[in-house]
Design a protein that fits this description.
heterodimer, A: 159 residues, alpha+beta, 5-stranded mixed beta sheet, 48% helix, 13% strand, B: 517 residues, alpha/beta, Glutaredoxin, Rossmann fold, Ubiquitin-like (UB roll), 4 domains, 22 helices, 40% helix, 15% strand, globular, NADH dehydrogenase (ubiquinone) activity (chain B)
């Protein structure tokens, strides 16, 4: 099966598992993004059809929420907290360092498809600012050196 | 018998390496042929000491911290399993002043128990509230909550009992209990700590609410940034369901309450209750007009109790010990305790649950230990990104909803973020507008357009362009947002903006006495 077939399969699976729940759209979108990393464009009409919604409505929901993405992410998603508590502890410098080190801006992915960089507004780790999340792991009191080390570890893990 | 060793599974502890420490202890113990029983508890909330390891001894639980994996062999060498001396030894956990001086009601079990062990929960007074509630009528349960004086801990501070009473008295074929776990405010993490450290107390609180008002379905709307909380909640819900504390015929009472966790998707505005309900219904999180109140037409158009995590998690102790017990804590019209979260530039960041009335200064210096950087604390933002900035001259204010309202400030969800004297308050005002622009749902014009114009106006003030006119324009714009926005996002963004301008005019290129301009 091609990647596209696998993606289609994942979309169908999420829809058939969850379409009968009340308020099923967000759970379905989460299901799809959990398994393939983003919501592919060709999933929109399939979801719309299954939930008896217009494509515009489904598109509107996907684009409303910062968490849902329409393009494939890199192998690792790096989120750096931009909120006040982390600002008070130097997140702006850390963010600049990350952008320079990876050579990308927010909402971009490195050329080798390794890292996607995203802003995030609070990880609930405000007692250990500045905070960073790499995939599902949160890190606290992150210095620029520590960030580089974490990125290197992530890069090694995917080799 | 193997020694019990506690290593937290709380996200913040994990963010500092708690998993690696737990693994190192296991490896070292097996190397030495010693049997240890590692329990992954919630965090005690003394985050500068995390990863904090506790060992159960005959004298009580002895704490060591902050522990790094490389410290572990040395801890074994010094017999930490029997409470041995070591540079990281902190003594009896319960005797550490930061913890000892608190009044932990809602957080009574957090850090003490294994979060997903129902037996542990029951052994520490768990489900006593529900058992009592099952002997009472719905109206009696609601009255107990009303009598406690509990006000919504999400930030709006609306009396919880009154909300419940409206749902109780609205007839419908279906009602809902919704827990707002979209804890998006910077500087707040008490919801996360409860969900990760004592999930059963939230489940119990929601079950009591359901039984009281006749709601059979509950949802916890959890932000997507909290994957660990999701895991712990789902684990605890599955246990409660298996043991008859959720589902059909709860504890043989014939009452039904189902509970499900739903994930948000990174929209700050979904912490606003009507926007949250839209999101739960599978739509864009667009704010609704009120009325109708959610208590009358809420989720799927049905009567709905929507409460913050801490409000619901405070219900079990109120039902267990009575409304009067809870009401006896606090001051004025702020009754009970508030789990305060110290964050930002402080030496000792952490969770401090205290009765209302403690002053900001006590929290910043006695608990927080002053700034982490060692520089003077210049400004403190209380109540999240929509909360006012307070200058040093206001640090003696007691934590009380009305005292803060008198200063044109808010307590919000109890988050306190400290900044040292390197902060640029014009920059923070700009950030407040920018955040509002990023997170606005777009329904009302003052918030949607006002926030973007706000960023531009602050930029002009910083650049010194037509200075006096732009300062006036910022005030006018703030007035429009304050009075014309549909919800607190646009309506309260002026709090950080104007408080920064009024208390720190010098950062906006004004002289100190020019603030009335």
């Amino acid at each position: 099966m091609t990647q596209q077939d696998l993606n289609r399969q994942a979309v169908q699976d999420a829809i058939s598992r969850m379409k009968d729940q009340p308020g099923a759209l967000l759970p379905i979108l989460h299901g799809i993004q959990d398994s393939i990393g983003h919501i592919p464009e060709d999933a929109v009409p399939v979801i719309a059809d299954a939930l008896n919604l217009s494509r515009a409505e489904v598109h509107g929901v996907i684009t409303f929420y910062h968490y849902f993405r329409q393009t494939p992410p890199g192998r690792h998603t790096v989120q750096i907290c931009q909120a006040e508590s982390c600002q008070a502890m130097g997140s702006e410098k850390l963010t600049e360092h990350a952008k320079q080190h990876l050579g990308i801006d927010f909402h971009e992915t490195t050329g080798d498809q390794e890292f996607s960089l995203e802003p995030v507004f609070c990880l609930g780790n405000c007692a250990c600012s500045p905070a960073v999340m790499i995939d599902d792991n949160v890190y606290g009191r992150v210095t620029p050196d520590r960030l580089e080390q974490l990125l290197n570890n992530a890069r090694k893990a995917s080799q | 018998m193997s020694t019990k060793v506690y290593v937290p599974r709380d996200s913040s502890a994990l963010s500092l390496g708690a998993d690696e420490v737990a693994m190192a202890i296991l490896v070292e113990a097996s190397k030495r042929g010693i049997s240890v029983d590692i329990i992954r508890n919630g965090s005690r909330g003394l985050f500068w000491l995390e990863p904090l390891v506790e060992v159960e001894t005959a004298q009580g639980r002895i704490a060591y911290g902050p522990v790094q994996p490389q410290d572990v062999p040395g801890l074994f060498d010094q017999n930490f399993l029997t409470g041995g001396e070591h540079a990281l030894r902190l003594g009896l956990m319960e005797e550490i002043a930061y913890l000892k001086n608190q009044e932990r009601l809602t957080f009574a079990r957090v850090g003490i128990t294994d979060p997903v062990s129902l037996d542990d929960y029951l052994a520490h007074d768990g489900y006593r509230g529900l058992r009592r509630a099952l002997q009472m009528s719905g109206a009696e349960v609601v009255k107990e909550v009303t009598d406690s004086g509990l006000r919504g801990r999400g930030g709006a501070a609306f009396p919880t009992g009154i909300k419940w009473n409206t749902v109780l008295n609205t007839a419908a074929d279906q009602k809902y209990i919704v827990c707002n776990a979209d804890e998006g405010d910077s500087g707040t993490y008490s919801d996360r700590m409860i969900m990760e450290g004592d999930p059963f107390v939230l489940i119990e609180g929601m079950t009591i609410a359901g039984i009281a008002v006749g709601a059979t379905q509950g949802y916890i709307y959890l932000r997507s940034e909290y994957p660990h909380a999701l895991q712990v909640l789902n684990e605890a819900i599955a246990v409660a369901l298996t043991k008859g504390y959720l589902g059909e015929n709860i504890l043989g009472s014939g009452k039904t309450f189902h509970l499900e966790v739903r994930r948000g998707a990174g929209a700050y505005v979904c912490g606003e209750e009507t926007s949250l309900l839209e999101s739960l219904e599978g739509k864009r999180g667009i704010v609704r007009f009120k009325p109708p109140l959610p208590a009358i037409e809420g989720l799927f158009g049905k009567p709905t109790i929507i409460n913050n995590v801490i409000s619901l998690a405070s219900v079990p102790i109120i039902l267990d010990k009575g409304g009067a017990f809870y009401r006896d804590y606090g001051m004025g019209r702020s009754r009970g305790t508030l789990p305060i979260q110290l964050a930002g530039n402080l030496k000792h960041c952490g969770l401090v649950e205290k009765a209302f009335g403690v002053t900001l200064r006590e929290l910043l210096y006695d608990y927080g230990g002053g700034s982490a950087s060692g520089r003077p604390i210049r400004a403190v933002q209380v109540g999240g990104p929509l909360g006012a900035y307070l200058p040093e001259s206001q640090f003696d204010t007691p934590l009380d909803y009305e005292a803060f309202a008198n200063l044109w400030a808010v307590l919000g969800h109890g988050g306190i973020v400290a900044f040292d004297d390197t902060v640029d308050m014009a920059h923070m005002a700009r950030y407040a507008m920018e955040f509002c622009a990023i997170e606005s749902c777009g329904k009302c014009t003052p918030c949607r357009i006002g926030s973007t114009r706000g960023v531009e106006v602050v930029d002009k003030i910083i650049a010194g362009t037509d200075h006096a006119a732009n300062v006036q324009l910022l005030r006018d714009l703030s007035d429009t947002m304050l009075n014309g926005s549909l919800c607190a996002l646009g309506g309260m963004t002026p709090y950080p903006v104007l408080s920064a301008l009024n208390h720190f005019p010098e950062d906006f290129g004004l002289k100190k006495n020019q603030q009335a301009a």
